[in-house]
Specification:
426 residues, alpha+beta, 32% helix, 15 strands, five-stranded mixed beta sheet
Length: 426
C-alpha cells in the first residue's frame, strides 16, 4: 500500500509539473505574440490574429478574432472553398440542348475559353462538330463590375469585366517590340499609339499604348455583340444570336480540371478567375448565373455554422464592402484542412516564399514554413493560411491588418516575425 501510494504521489507530481510547463509555456507564447502586436507603429490601426491547432482544433491565440476587417484577396479563400463544394473535377463549360437540327448553347461563366494562360479550346473543338448553332447570352444577372469596386480602374489589368461567356480572359495584350502585336488580333485596328493617362476608352474598345511602353494588358469592354463576333471568328461560320433558350432539358459539357484554375487563382491572386469561378459555381445551382446567388447559397448551407457571418459581395476581394473576421477565415481554412487531403491542399495553396506571395525569401537560415493567401488593398494587408511548426504541428491562422499608415513592407515583416515565434515555440 505504501509503495502504491508513493507511486501515485509521483504521478501527481509529474502531472502537476507537466501542467505547469504547459501553462507557463502557453503564457510565455501569448506574451511573445502580444509583444509582436503591441509595437508602437501598430498603435493607431487594427491588427487581429487568430491561431488554432489544425489537428486538435484547440485555440492557440486570439486577438480581435470577432472584429470585422476588410479582407481584400483573403476573400479568394471563400471562393476556393465554394468551388470545391459546388464544382466537379472538370469545370462546367457549356450548357446546350438540341432542337431539330439546331444546337442551342449558353455559357456557364467558365473563364478558360482561349485564356492566354490556359489556352483552352475544348469547347471550340466540340462546337466545330455541330452543324447549326444558336447562341443565348441572356442568362447572367449582374453588372460588369462587382459592388464596391473602384470603377475608375476599368482600364487596369486586374479589373476585367464579368460575363457569362468570357473569351481571352476578357483582356487584350499589347506588345510593341519591333512591331505591334495584339492578342486577340481582333483588336489590332483599334490600338492607337498615344501618350495618355488612359489605356482604353471607358465605353468602347479603343486602346492607347504610350510611345515608351513595350507591353500592356488592358481589359476590353464586353458585350453580347462582341462575344458573338468572337465565336463566329473562331468557328469560321455564321451563328444565330437568340434572346431566349428553348424549354428543353439542358445538358452540360465539361472542360479542363478545376484544380488548375484554383491553383492559378490563388497563386497569382487572379481577380478575373475568382469572379468567374463564383459565376460558374452558380451554374450548378440555377439556370440563371449570378455571384450573389451562389454567395447566398453558401452562407445558408455550407457556411451557415460560421461564428461571424461575413458581409461577402464578390469573389476576388476587390470590393471594400466585404467584411470578414479572422475567426471566420480560420473556420473556413479548418473546413478545407478537414475536407481536402493535405497533399492536394498544399499543392494548390501558395507557399509564402519567392515561389508564392513574396518577391524574395530573406530569412535564408529558415526554410519556408507557411502556406497562405495574402490580400492587400491600400492601407490593408492580410495573410491567412497554414503554418508548420518545428515540432511537427500544423497551425491554422488568420492575421488581418487594416487602416495602417506605415509601409506594407513593415507590416509584412512584423507578420513574419510573429509567425516565426509560432513556428519555433509551439
Amino acid at each position: 500500500m505504501q509503495k502504491l501510494g508513493f507511486k501515485c504521489f509521483n504521478c501527481l507530481i509529474a502531472i502537476f509539473l507537466c501542467g505547469s510547463f504547459l501553462f507557463f509555456g502557453c503564457s510565455s507564447l501569448k506574451k511573445s505574440l502580444d509583444a509582436n502586436l503591441n509595437i508602437e507603429p501598430f498603435g493607431n490601426s487594427l491588427h487581429g490574429l487568430v491561431v488554432v491547432d489544425g489537428n486538435t482544433k484547440k485555440p492557440v491565440y486570439q486577438r480581435l478574432g470577432n472584429t470585422y476587417f476588410t479582407p481584400a484577396s483573403n476573400v479568394k479563400i471563400f471562393t476556393f472553398y465554394t468551388g470545391l463544394k459546388l464544382l466537379p473535377e472538370r469545370i462546367p463549360t457549356l450548357r446546350y440542348a438540341s432542337v431539330n437540327d439546331t444546337l442551342f448553347v449558353e455559357g456557364t461563366g467558365d473563364p478558360t475559353w482561349m485564356h492566354p494562360y490556359f489556352k483552352d479550346s475544348t469547347v471550340i473543338a466540340w462546337l466545330q462538330t455541330q452543324p447549326v448553332i444558336a447562341l443565348h447570352l441572356k442568362n447572367f444577372e449582374g453588372e460588369r463590375f462587382g459592388p464596391g469596386w473602384a470603377w475608375e480602374d476599368y482600364d487596369l489589368y486586374f479589373s476585367p469585366e464579368n460575363n457569362a461567356m468570357p473569351f481571352y480572359g476578357n483582356v487584350v495584350s499589347l506588345i510593341n517590340v519591333d512591331s505591334l502585336k495584339v492578342f486577340p488580333a481582333h483588336f489590332k485596328q483599334q490600338v492607337i499609339e498615344k501618350d495618355t493617362s488612359m489605356a482604353r476608352d471607358e465605353y468602347s474598345n479603343t486602346f492607347y499604348l504610350g510611345t515608351d511602353q513595350d507591353s500592356l494588358q488592358v481589359p476590353f469592354r464586353t458585350s453580347d455583340g462582341l462575344t458573338h463576333q468572337f465565336l463566329e471568328k473562331l468557328l469560321k461560320r455564321k451563328i444565330t444570336l437568340v434572346n431566349k433558350f428553348p424549354a428543353r432539358e439542358k445538358k452540360m459539357l465539361y472542360g479542363m480540371e478545376t484544380d488548375s484554375i484554383y491553383k492559378r487563382m490563388l497563386l497569382k491572386s487572379d481577380n478575373f478567375l475568382a469572379e468567374q469561378l463564383l459565376i460558374t459555381a452558380s451554374s450548378t445551382r440555377s439556370d440563371t448565373l449570378g455571384i450573389q446567388r451562389v454567395i447566398t447559397y453558401m452562407l445558408e448551407n455550407d457556411l451557415r455554422d460560421l461564428d461571424n457571418e461575413p458581409r461577402w459581395v464578390d469573389g476576388s476581394g476587390l470590393s471594400r464592402y466585404n467584411l470578414f473576421t479572422p475567426k471566420s477565415i480560420v473556420q473556413v481554412l479548418q473546413k478545407l484542412y478537414d475536407e481536402v487531403p493535405e497533399q492536394r491542399l498544399f499543392s494548390l495553396f501558395p507557399m509564402w516564399d519567392s515561389t508564392g506571395t513574396v518577391e524574395k525569401w530573406k530569412d535564408l537560415d529558415t526554410k519556408p514554413f507557411v502556406f497562405a493567401k495574402s490580400g492587400s488593398l491600400g492601407n490593408n494587408y492580410n495573410l491567412s493560411g497554414y503554418l508548420k511548426t518545428k515540432s511537427g504541428k500544423l497551425l491554422i491562422f488568420s492575421f488581418m491588418n487594416n487602416h495602417f499608415r506605415i509601409s506594407t513592407e513593415e507590416v509584412r515583416h512584423q507578420i513574419y516575425q510573429t509567425l516565426k515565434v509560432l513556428r519555433e515555440r509551439y
